[in-house]
User: Fold this.
Amino acid sequence: MASEWPRVRISEVCELIVDCVNKTAPKSEFPTEFKMLRTPNVKNGRVDTSNCFYVTEDTYLKWTRRATVNKNDVLLTREAPLGEVGIVKSEEKLFLGQRLMQYRADQTKLDPDFLVYSFLSPDLQHQFRMHEGSGSVVSHIRVGDCSKFEINLPPLTTQKSIAKILGELDQRIELNRKTNQTLEQMAQALFKSWFVDFDPVVDNALAAGNPVPDELAHRVEVRKKAHALPDFQPLPEHIRNLFPNEFEQTGEPNLGIDGWVPKGWICKPVSQALIVNPKVKLSKGEVARFADMKAIPTNGFHVEDIIEKEFNGGAKFQQNDVLLARITPCLENGKTALVDFLKKDEVGFGSTEFIVLRGCGAISYPYVACLSRLDSFRQHCIQNMVGSSGRQRVQNSCFDSFFLSLPKDERLLTSFDRVCKPMFEKMTVSGTEINSLAKMRDTLLPRLISGELKLNKDVA
Assistant:
C-alpha cells in the first residue's frame, strides 16, 4: 500500500514555509489582542494559546512582516525542544516567537490535519533528527533543511479520512483533559477559599457583627460582591459552623492574610503538617513503575507516560503521594503530579529531582495536591532555591519556613476531603482513559500515515 503513494518534499505541497524572526520580541506589560507563540505553546499536535506573552500592535506588525499565523497553519519547534509539532486552531492574532517554523498546506494537495499527523509520525520525527545541526550544544534543525522533509502523499480524500480517525481520538483526549482542568479548578477554588482567603470566616464575622481587621478589608468587599450574585450559594450550615467568626494576629508574616488567621486555628510549617519525602523501601534492581520528569504535567496532575524499569535510585513514592519538581525551570513551569497509578502498598520511583509530599493525619491528598499548585507556595519554593544559575534546587529546609493555618476541628479537613476526593477520583478515571486513547492513537498513527493499514472505502 505504501508504495502506491508518492513521496514528496514538504516544499512541493505547502504554499508557505516561514522561519520566525530570530530575536526576542519586546513583551507588553499589559494584556493585548496580540500574542507571541513560544516553543512551550507547541506540543503533542496542539498549539495552546492560553499562556502566551502579549505584545503591542506595533510589535505584532513588525514580527509578522513575513507572514501572519492563520488557522490550520502547522508549527514545528526547531530546538529547545526539537521536533514538537502543533496545528493552530485559533483565529487569534498570533505570531512566531523564536525557534519556530510555520507551514501552510496547499489545501488542493495536502490536508493540514494530515500534515500535522505526518509530522508526529516516527517517519518525520526521524527525519527531524537526521537533519539535526552540528557544532552546537543545543540540538536544533537548520532552517535551510526545514523545507526538505519528505512525506507520503495519498489522495486528498484518504488524507482527510486518516486525519478524521486520528482527530476523533484526539478530540476525546482533549475532552478528558478539559474535564480534568475544570475539576482541578473547582478543587483549587475551594481550597483557596477555605484555607487561604478564609472566606467562610469573613462571612461568619460579618454575620455576627464582629470586626474584621483592616488588612482583610479587600476580602470583605469580595465577599459582599459574591453574596450579591444571583447564583451565590452559601455553605451548608453544618460546614459553615465549623469555621470561627473572628480572626487573630500571628507573628509569622507569610501566614494567612498579612499575618491574620482564623481564631483558634493551629499554625504549622509544611515540614510538620505534611510528610516530606516519606521513607518507603524499594530494593536496588527491583522492577517498579517509573515516572521521569518529562512525564510530569505542567497543567493538571495526571502522569501520562509510565514505564517499568529496575530501581537504581531516585525519589520513591506510593499511591496518592504528590510529586513536586524541585529544579529550574520545571518548578517555574508548574510540573506537579499526583501518584494515582499504583496499587495499595505498591512502591514506584522517579527522578531524583522530585520532592515527594504526603498528607498526614486528617490532611489527605486533595489538600496536598491543591497546596502544591498554590501560587504563594510555589513562589516560596522558587525564592528559596539553592545552587548555580540555571540548575537551582529546592531544599527540604524550604518547608520549615512556609506556614499553614489548620483548623483544630478535623471535621473541617474531612469535609474538604469529602467534597474534593470525588473530583480527584474522576480525574484519575479521565486520565486513565487519556492514556488508553493515546496508546490507540500512537499505534494507529504510523500504520495509517505509512499506508500499512488500509482504510475501508466507506470511511469519510
Remarks:
- Residues 32 and 127 are 38 Å apart (CA to CA).
- The chain has a mean pLDDT of 92.
- The first strand starts at residue 7 and ends at 9.
- The chain is about 35% helix and 20% strand.
